[in-house]
Design brief:
alpha+beta; 5-stranded antiparallel sheet; 4-stranded mixed sheet; globular; membrane
C-alpha cells in the first residue's frame, strides 16, 4: 500500500495515471457496444477501418501492401496518405481483434488529446484542477465524438493539435530548439494520421502562432530563420516517406487527365455566420441542426460548434477581461481568421481569392478548419478559470457573466419573436412553442453566475472545486447527448460469412462491378465502403479520395474528373450505357460479375456494338459560337432518336485560342442522362472532331433535342456539323444471370478477360485521348490500342500459366509460337516493372487504362512487379532525418550528463 502511494506521488506515475484516465473514459463509454458484437462507426468509418484491416492482413500474410488490387481495378495503396497506412499507432495495435482495435484506436487518440490538452493548459500557467477539467471536457466535446466518429481520419488528425501546441508553447517559454523538434515530430504524426486537410490547416495556424511569439520575444531574424528551418526540416523530413510517393502519385494522375478542384466544390459546406447562434442555443434552428432550412453552404460541422452554454459564456467574458493577455490576443485573432475562412462562401470575393491560393484551393468543406477554433476556445476557458481563481477582482467576472446572461436572454427573445412567428421558417413555429429550447441554456447561465458569486464571496478551494464540478456537469448535461450519438454496424461486416463466400466464388478470379447510377447500391453491398479489400473481392468500385482518372474517362465519354473527389467510383452515372455499349471495356478490365439493382441489363443479356454510318439525322453548314466570356451558350436542334442506338456527332471547328470545352448531349422532357453528355475539348486552330453517344432507353417519339452547350471564352467557328445514326448490332447472351438475392441480380460477363491475356492485334493511336473519345467503336476484346507502337496484326495468342500471384506482383509462364502481346488488366501505374526471364522490358499503357508488354516467341517466365521507387526515396530521406535526430539526441544527452 505504501509502495502504491509513493508511486502515485511520483511525477512520472502521475502522468501515466492521467493518461490512463483519459484513455479509460471513452473506453468504458463504448465498451458495451463492442461487447454486444457491434462497432460504434458506420459509413465512412467502416471504410476508414477497412483500410487498416487490409494493411494488417497483408502484413500478417508477409506482404507489404504497396498496391491494392481489390479497389478500382488496382490502386497504389502505400502512396496515398489518406489511407493512413504508415501511421505508427495503427501499426502498433494492429495485432488486436477488429472490434477492440477500433475501441483502443479511438480511446488512445482521446487519451492523447486529453493528456496534451492538460499539459498545454499547465504550460499556460493553469493549475492542475483546471487543466484536468479542460482536458476532460475537451475529449468529451461533440467534435471528438458524435457522428464525427464516422470520420475517424479527421478525429485521429485533430487530436494532435494540443500536442503540437504544447511543444510550441514549451519552446516559447524555454527557447530550447528541442521542443521545436518534438513539435515537428508531432506534426509528422498528424500528417501520417490520414487527413491531410486538417493537418495543413494546423500547419498554417501553428506557423502563425509561432511566428507571432518569436517576433514578440524579439528573437531576431537570424534566430527565427535558424529555428524555423530546424522545425520545418524535422517535419518535412519525417513525412517524406509518405509525402514523396503521394506527390508522385498526384503528378501521375494529373498526367493521365485530371482537372483542378472546381470552385463550387471548394466552397461547398462553408459555414454560415448565423451558426454562431448555435454556440449558445444548439437547436436554435430546429432539431435538424446540421442543415437548418436546407441552407446552401451550411456545414455538417454545425452542432460541433456547441461546447456548452456555460463555456461560451465564460469564454466571451474571458476575451473581454483578458484581452491584453498575449495568448488571448493572438488566439482571438486566429479565431476570427479561422471562422472567416470557414465561412468564406458568405463573404463577397473572399472565396475567389482563397480558391486561387495554391494547395488551399484544392480542398472542400472549409469548415474542417473549425477544430482549431474549438481548441483555442477551450484554451481561453482555462485561462479565464485560472484568472477567476487567482484575481482579487472576482466581482469583475461576475459582472460580465451577468451582463452576458442578460444578452443571451435578449438574443433568445429575439429568436423566439422572429422564428416562432414563421418569419424565417414556418416549420419551426411548432418547435419553438413555449420557448423551451431557450430555457435550459439561460438557466445554466444563471447557475454559473450563482457559482461565480459564491466563490467571489467566500473564496475557498472547496467552493472553487464544486464550481468546477458544476461547470463539468452542466456542460456534459448539454453536450453528452450529442457526443454519444452514433450508428453501429456489426463487426461481422468485415468478416467472411456464407453469403460473402458464395459471392466470392461467383466472382472467381475477375472483378465484380456494381453497375449502379446511385451510390447507395455500392454502399449497402457486401463490398461497400471498401470492404472488398478486406474480403479480397476485387472490384471496379471504391470509396477513396484520390482516384486514377483513366477508368472514369473510359466510362464517361472522356469526361475528365477532378483529382480529389471521394466517391468517384462509388457510382457510375452512365452505368446503363456502360453495360450495353461497352462490353469490350468491361471485358478487358476483367469484369467477370456484374451486380445489377437497377435493371441496367435486359432480360436477354444484350450488348451492342457499332457498325458503319447509316443515316444523317440533321446537318448544319455553319454555326457561330461567340465569345461569351464564360457565360452559357446553347445551340439546340430537334431530333428523333431510337432506343439503344449509336449516334455520331461530327464537325470542324476553328478558334484563335483554346476556348474551353463544350459538350454535346441529347435531352428531352423526360430524357436527360449523363450517358448522352459528350465532352469535346476544343483546341486552338482548325481541327476535326468526332464523338459518339448511345441512347439507352430513350423515349421514342418524344420531343428530344440535340444540343451543343458551352461557356466559351473565345469565338468558335463550327462548320459541317452532322448528327448521324450508326449501324447498331445487338448480341444476346453476353450477360448470363447466375444469382438473385436481396434486390440484386448477378450476371456473368461471358467475354471477361483473365488477369493476364494475349491480344490478337496491336493498333497504334496518335493520341491516347482519342481512345476515350472512341470507346464505343473500339474493339478492346481483340485489340490493344497503344500510343506510339507499330501496328501488328494476327499476333500469337499463346498460353499462360500463372505460377505465383501476390498483391504486389504476378508471375506466369507463357509460351508463344511467334511474337505476342501480353496484357495485364490491372490499372497502369508508372512504378510497375515487367520482366521477361529476369530482364526488364518496357510496359505500355494499353487501351488508355491497363498495361501490356511485347513477348518474343518461345517459352518465357514473365513477371509484373510493383516497385515503388518514390516510396523508397521518400523512406530513405525520412530514415536519414530520423537517424540525425536520434544521434543528436544521444549526443546532447551525454553532453548534459557530463
Amino acid at each position: 500500500m505504501n509502495y502504491l502511494k509513493k508511486m502515485i506521488q511520483n511525477d512520472k506515475s502521475k502522468l501515466i495515471f492521467l493518461f490512463g484516465f483519459y484513455f479509460l473514459v471513452p473506453f468504458l463509454i463504448y465498451l458495451g457496444t463492442i461487447l454486444s458484437g457491434n462497432v460504434f462507426v458506420s459509413g465512412d468509418g467502416v471504410g476508414f477501418f477497412g483500410f487498416k484491416i487490409y494493411f494488417n492482413q497483408s502484413i500478417m500474410q508477409g506482404q507489404f501492401p504497396f498496391w491494392n488490387p481489390y479497389l478500382s481495378n488496382g490502386i497504389p495503396f502505400a502512396m496515398d496518405q489518406s489511407f493512413g497506412q504508415l501511421y505508427p499507432i495503427s501499426i502498433l495495435i494492429s495485432w488486436l481483434p477488429l472490434d477492440f482495435f477500433i475501441l483502443v484506436y479511438y480511446s488512445l487518440h482521446m487519451a492523447i488529446a486529453g493528456f496534451f490538452m492538460n499539459l498545454f493548459m499547465r504550460e499556460l500557467k493553469c493549475d492542475k484542477k483546471i487543466s484536468f477539467v479542460i482536458g476532460l471536457i475537451y475529449i468529451l466535446s461533440i467534435h471528438m465524438g458524435g457522428y464525427r466518429k464516422n470520420h475517424m481520419g479527421i478525429i485521429s488528425t485533430v487530436v494532435w493539435i494540443p500536442v503540437i501546441f504544447y511543444f510550441i508553447q514549451r519552446y516559447i517559454h524555454t527557447k530550447r530548439v528541442k521542443f521545436l523538434v518534438f513539435s515537428g515530430i508531432a506534426m509528422a504524426l498528424q500528417f501520417l494520421a490520414g487527413f491531410i486537410q486538417c493537418a495543413f490547416y494546423t500547419d498554417i495556424i501553428v506557423g502563425i502562432y509561432l511566428l507571432y511569439f518569436m517576433i514578440q520575444d524579439k528573437l531576431g531574424i537570424k534566430r527565427i530563420i535558424k529555428d524555423g528551418l530546424v522545425w520545418g526540416s524535422t517535419y518535412i523530413g519525417l513525412v517524406c516517406i509518405q509525402l514523396v510517393p503521394m506527390l508522385f502519385m498526384m503528378s501521375c494522375y494529373e498526367s493521365l487527365g485530371t482537372i483542378d478542384t472546381p470552385f463550387e466544390f471548394f466552397k461547398g459546406w462553408s459555414i454560415s455566420f448565423r451558426k454562431l447562434l448555435m454556440t449558445i442555443f444548439p437547436t436554435v434552428f430546429g432539431p435538424d441542426y446540421s442543415m437548418p432550412y436546407g441552407h446552401l453552404y451550411s456545414s455538417e460541422i454545425d452542432i460541433e460548434l456547441f461546447l456548452g452554454t456555460a463555456i461560451i459564456l465564460l469564454v466571451v467574458c474571458g476575451i473581454i477581461i483578458l484581452h491584453k493577455h498575449s495568448f488571448v490576443k493572438i488566439g482571438l485573432l486566429l479565431m476570427i481568421g479561422i471562422y472567416i475562412y470557414a465561412a468564406n462562401a458568405h463573404i463577397p470575393y473572399l472565396s475567389e481569392i482563397l480558391y486561387r491560393i495554391p494547395l488551399l484551393g484544392g480542398f472542400r468543406v472549409p469548415s474542417r478548419i473549425l477544430p482549431l477554433f474549438i481548441f483555442i476556445e477551450f484554451s481561453i476557458l482555462g485561462l479565464v478559470l485560472q484568472y477567476f481563481k487567482e484575481t482579487a477582482k472576482k466581482t469583475q467576472l461576475l459582472s460580465y457573466a451577468v451582463i452576458g446572461t442578460i444578452c443571451f436572454t435578449i438574443i433568445a427573445c429575439l429568436c423566439y419573436i422572429f422564428i416562432s412567428n414563421g418569419i424565417f421558417s414556418s416549420n419551426l413555429s411548432e418547435f419553438y412553442k413555449g420557448g423551451r429550447i431557450f430555457v435550459g441554456p439561460i438557466v445554466i447561465c444563471i447557475i454559473i453566475c450563482i457559482g461565480i458569486y459564491l466563490y467571489s464571496k467566500y473564496e475557498t478551494q472547496k467552493i472553487f472545486t464544486i464550481f468546477l464540478g458544476v461547470l463539468v456537469s452542466v456542460t456534459l448535461f448539454q453536450t453528452f447527448p450529442y457526443y454519444h450519438m452514433y450508428a453501429t454496424v456489426s463487426s461481422k461486416e468485415y468478416m467472411m460469412d456464407d453469403s460473402k463466400k458464395a459471392l466470392k466464388e461467383l466472382i472467381g478470379v475477375g472483378n465484380i462491378w456494381y453497375a449502379s447510377e446511385k451510390q447507395q447500391a455500392y454502399f449497402t453491398s457486401e463490398i461497400g465502403f471498401n470492404k472488398g479489400a478486406v474480403l479480397e473481392m476485387p472490384s471496379l468500385n471504391s470509396y477513396v479520395s484520390l482516384n486514377n482518372p483513366t477508368m472514369y474517362r473510359l466510362f464517361n465519354n472522356n469526361a475528365i474528373p477532378q483529382l480529389n473527389f471521394s466517391g468517384l467510383y462509388t457510382w457510375f452515372p452512365a452505368a446503363r450505357a456502360n453495360v450495353r455499349a461497352q462490353n469490350g471495356t468491361l471485358s478487358m478490365l476483367g469484369v467477370n460479375v456484374i451486380a445489377d439493382q437497377e435493371n441496367v441489363i435486359d432480360e436477354l443479356g444484350t450488348s451492342y456494338t457499332m457498325g458503319m454510318e447509316k443515316n444523317t439525322i440533321f446537318e448544319q453548314e455553319i454555326l457561330q459560337v461567340p465569345n461569351l466570356e464564360g457565360q452559357l451558350f446553347v445551340f439546340s436542334n430537334p431530333v428523333e432518336v431510337k432506343k439503344n442506338t449509336f449516334y455520331k456527332v461530327a464537325f470542324d471547328a476553328e478558334a484563335n485560342k483554346a476556348p474551353g470545352s463544350v459538350y454535346f448531349d441529347l435531352c428531352g422532357e423526360n430524357y436527360d442522362r449523363g450517358a448522352q453528355d459528350v465532352n469535346i475539348y476544343i483546341k486552338e486552330g482548325k481541327h476535326h472532331y468526332e464523338n459518339y453517344v448511345f441512347t439507352e432507353d430513350s423515349d421514342e417519339g418524344a420531343n428530344i433535342v440535340a444540343r451543343i452547350v458551352g461557356t466559351p471564352i473565345a469565338d468558335i467557328n463550327i462548320t459541317n456539323l452532322k448528327f448521324i445514326e450508326m449501324e447498331t448490332i445487338p448480341y444476346t447472351g453476353i450477360y448470363e444471370k447466375i444469382y438473385e438475392g436481396n434486390g440484386t441480380v448477378y450476371y456473368r460477363n461471358n467475354n471477361a478477360k483473365d488477369l493476364l491475356y494475349f491480344t490478337e492485334n496491336v493498333i497504334n493511336v496518335q493520341d491516347r485521348g482519342k481512345i476515350y473519345n472512341d470507346v464505343y467503336k473500339l474493339d478492346f476484346i481483340n485489340n490493344s490500342y497503344i500510343e506510339g507502337y507499330d501496328d501488328k496484326e494476327g499476333l500469337d495468342l499463346g498460353e499462360i500459366k500463372i505460377i505465383d500471384q501476390g498483391i504486389n506482383s504476378i508471375k506466369a509462364q507463357v509460351e508463344c509460337s511467334e511474337e505476342g502481346f501480353l496484357n495485364f488488366s490491372q490499372n497502369y501505374y508508372p512504378e510497375w516493372k515487367a520482366f521477361i526471364d529476369g530482364v526488364e522490358t518496357k510496359i505500355y499503357i494499353v487501351n488508355g487504362s491497363i498495361q501490356g508488354i511485347s513477348v518474343p516467341e518461345g517459352s518465357h517466365i514473365v513477371e509484373f512487379k510493383f516497385v515503388p521507387t518514390s516510396f523508397y526515396i521518400g523512406g530513405s530521406i525520412t530514415l536519414v532525418v530520423l537517424i540525425i535526430i536520434i544521434v543528436i539526441s544521444i549526443y546532447k544527452t551525454k553532453k548534459h550528463r557530463v
